[in-house]
């Protein structure tokens, strides 16, 4: 399951990051690192950004980026 597939209100643990090295670096720079718990707070309509929470930090990421985050 990927972060893009995680239902709103649910929490998952990041198991790995997919994609090319540039995308992985970008995702990691946002704080999405292996072993961290991440929760989906809400989703925008029509395929817009997904609001996720890592610890006390909220982020908006594109669904394409969220699809690169593999959950355990």
CATH topology: SH3 type barrels
Overall shape: it is: globular
Total of domains:
1
Counting DSSP E segments of at least 2 residues, the number of strands comes to: 5
**What's the CATH class label?**
Mainly Beta
Count of DSSP-assigned helices: 2
| Major β-sheet annotation | 5 strands, antiparallel
Low-confidence parts lasting 5 or more residues at pLDDT below 50?
none
Order of helices and strands: EHEEEHE
Q: How large is the share of residues in beta strands?
A: 35-45%
Question: Distance between termini?
Answer: 7 Å
Describe this structure in words.
The protein has 72 residues and is of the alpha+beta class. The protein has one domain: SH3 type barrels (Roll), CATH 2.30.30.90. Helices cover 18% and strands 38% of the residues. Strands 4-3-2-1-5 form a five-stranded antiparallel beta sheet. It starts with 10 loop residues before the first strand and ends with a strand. The mean pLDDT is 94.
């Amino acid at each position: 399951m990927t972060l893009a597939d995680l239902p709103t209100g649910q929490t998952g643990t990041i198991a790995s990051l997919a994609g090319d090295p540039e995308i992985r670096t970008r995702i990691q720079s946002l704080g999405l690192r292996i072993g961290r718990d991440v929760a989906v707070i809400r989703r925008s309509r029509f395929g817009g950004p997904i609001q996720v929470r890592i610890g006390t930090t909220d982020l908006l990421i594109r669904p394409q980026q969220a699809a690169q985050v593999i959950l355990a």
